[in-house]
Write a structure and sequence with these properties.
The protein has a single domain, classed as Winged helix-like DNA-binding domain superfamily/Winged helix DNA-binding domain (Arc Repressor Mutant, subunit A, Orthogonal Bundle). 58% of the residues lie in helices and 7% in strands. A two-stranded antiparallel ribbon has the order 1-2. It is elongated and about 50 Å long. The termini are far apart.
Length: 121
């Protein structure tokens, strides 16, 4: 699948990049409901990633009702992602950026969690 690209230097985990791109392609209609996706093995090979990474994306999108997998038919787009899916993506990206900043400052996980708790209050 040529439209999915993973940037190893982005700081965002590859599975998250793939998931976000699938969501965007489905919302834009580039992958309409009923469109067949490549197999997990094929997409992993095309992107140079492990099958586990791609399987995680498919599992999460299946759990959200966006994808559906049937043994004979493979994986197809089942529905257009909801706002909830988008909100989770935005939060995950923000968290990834925060973690990178905290690590660059030499902070521990505990330090970072305390910073989040202080900001939350």
């Amino acid at each position: 699948m040529n439209r999915i690209v993973v940037d190893p230097d982005s700081g965002i985990p590859p599975w998250r990049q793939i998931k976000d791109q699938f969501v965007r392609l489905i919302q834009l209609g580039a992958l309409p409901v009923g469109a067949q996706l490549p197999s997990i093995r094929q997409l992993a090979r095309d992107l140079g990633l492990s099958t586990g990474t791609v399987a995680r994306v498919y599992r999460e999108l299946e759990a959200a009702g966006v994808l559906q997998t049937a043994r004979r038919a493979g994986t197809v787009v089942a529905a257009i992602p909801t706002q909830e899916t988008d909100s989770a993506a935005v939060l995950d990206r923000a968290a990834a950026e925060f973690v990178l900043s905290a690590k660059a400052l030499g902070m521990t996980v505990t330090d970072a969690l305390h910073a989040v708790e202080r900001a939350w209050d």
